[in-house]
Amino acid sequence: MPLKHSKTKKWINIIAVLFTLQVISTIGLMFIQNYLIYVLDLIIVALFGVLVYKILKIKDSYAINLEEEILKHKETFSELEASRTKLQNIFDSIDVAIWSHNIESNKLLITSGIEKLYGYPLQAFYEDAELWKKVIHPEDSEIIQRRAIDIQNGNVATSEYRIIRPNGEIRWIHDRGIPFLNEERKLVDFNSILIDVTERKRAEITIEHMAYFDELTGLPNRNGFMQTIEEQMKEAELKNSNLALLFLDLDRFNVLNDTLGHSFGDLLLQKVAELLKSTVSHKGKVFRRSGDEFLILLEFNKICEVKTIAEEIIHSFTKPFMLSGQEVFTTPSIGISTYPGNGSDSETLLKRADSALYQAKERGRNTYQFFTNQHDGKMERRLNLEHGLRKALINHEFFLMYQPLVQITAKKIVGVEALLRWNKEDEGIISPAEFIPIAEETGMIIPIGEWVLKNACLQGAKWHENGYSDLLISVNISVRQLLEESFIERVESILSETNFPASSLEMEITESTTMQNMDEAIPVLNRLREKGIRISVDDFGTGYSSLTYLRQLPVDTLKIDKMFIDDILIDPKAGAIVKTIIDMGHNLDFYVIAEGIETSQQIEFLLEQGCLYGQGYHLFKPLAAKDVAAYLQQNMVIN
Fold first, then answer.
1. Helix (H, G, I), strand (E, B) or coil at 251
2. What SS3 class is residue 228?
3. What DSSP letter does each residue of 501-555 carry, written as one string?
């Protein structure tokens, strides 16, 4: 447009000059008659016509351009209005509000999103500029005070606090305040962005609860315990007071859990948690460590206070627990350590309470035991055995004994069970009951178990070469071995290396521990069976003892646990259980073997019930390999 305006100005200047010439020539014509002047006059008239045409054209063009500019401005305004509407819709659809307050002019601007956040109408905030502060949860008032100080100092303040909506609902607000100060460091303008973060806060609370609380019982878990005991030890140190740590474990919980099922076990743990909370009450705090283990933390002045609570807990377990209409009894064993007497840190207190718990179980369960220095001797003993186990294979301290498996009516040996023995270099013979659990816990059972399997197969191969080719060799296998990734390959390698037939090897698994890992164990047992290896369930009756599990397990033999055989002549219930196991085993086409036979009367009872196979001191004690050969010559029976 400026270019066209300049052209118009130029043409106006030209017409002004020509018009002047026209006036002069007209005056000249009045005095002299000259054709040249007439020609000039005509030229001026023509130029004047052209100029008028140009002016009219430029005027039309200018009008058109002006109309285009107006249309463009209208389009821009429409776009701006659409953007403003879109932005407003965004603010209205999300839980965000913007609060802008010019302190100097006292102008307040609030977006409508604040209605969704706070539950109050927008106008209410204009009428009462302090309304946002009045609805903040009283417990978060300190947050607002700290925030106000930051704002006055010109610092961006990011805060999270709770508000109470008109309906009583509590919501979390994330508030980012941005202040503006003048040159005199005085607050002149303030903007704030408010976001509803309630769902995030709820998620954070849930995650924190999961980290510090047990999902099953609702009690604080091990993490919650470690956090609490550290805090309470600091308080006890400042107050010069004492703490007691009670480590509680349910007696024979695994038997109950295995017999009744895991769902009943979970119900029992929930009931125990409620009982402990009500018994301890305000006197202390209850935690669930893991499984059936609970921790109780008490502050006390006199040790008799701790004894009283421990006795109250034990007494509270005398009543049965009702689980889905069924009465279930259980008892607790409790180990107790004290702070600062038994340790100055949480790990030491926990370890010593655990040691005292072990002592309580040794004393018959359903009792409590305070930690004493004697317990340290037991811990030293355990460490000594653990250290010795790691050297036992290298020092050739292990050896095998073999307990014959007898066909009772013919008193003939049909197989032998390989039993591990340890002749410790500086002590002599160590009981398997003492060192096997340590080997299990430390993982040493894997190399030790492999040594047992290999040497038993080597010995079995020798007996087969001597003519006893039908002799069955039975070897105990731990769950840790069974679930080892390379277990099948190691078994195949040993059979190949020793040239011992798989059909003459029987692997004994313990019922209770195997059932706890059934999903993992069954595929391994099936692969062993496919290779011709027999599977025996040891200590049957102490674990699940369920037809469902027996149907799933690839089993050839059931071995009735010694604890039932011991009482068959004096306890009718024990006799009934043994009879039931024998009948069930035969109906499922299993071999049934009675363990721990010690009297001829027990043999008579078993034969009456149809049990034809047995082991025990009344038949044969465990024998060395050289002694087994002597008995085989006269007592071997063909399978």
1. coil
2. helix
3. -GGGEEEEEEHHHHHTTHHHHHHHHHHHHHTT-EEEEEEETSS---HHHHHHS--
pLDDT digit string (tens) for 45-100?
Answer: 666 666 666 665 665 555 566 667 777 766 776 776 676 666 566 655 556 888 88
Residue 235 to residue 262: CA distance in whole angstroms: 40
Handedness of CA 501, 503, 506, 511 (dihedral sign): positive
How many Å is the maximal CA-CA distance in the chain?
Answer: 175
Please list the alpha-helical segments (H only) found in 94-152. 113-118, 122-127, 131-134, 141-152
Which pair of structure tokens corresponds to residue 400? 């095998």
* Nearest alpha carbon to residue 466 among 601, 630, 586: 630
Q: Looking up tokens 């029976």, which residue turns up?
A: 637
Q: Could you tell me the two tokens for 124?
A: 């209410």
Neighbours of 13 (CB within 10 A): 10
CA torsion sign, 5 to 8 to 13 to 19?
negative
- Global pTM exceeds 0.70: no
Residue 132 half-sphere exposure, CB side, CA atoms within 13 Å?
Answer: 20
Contacts of 3 (CB under 8 A, 6+ apart): none
pLDDT beneath 50: ranges in the chain: 1-4, 544-545, 637-639
Question: Alpha-carbon distance 366 to 331, whole Å?
Answer: 5
Nearest 5°: the CA angle 493, 498, 503 is: 80
Structure-token pair, residue 637: 């029976």
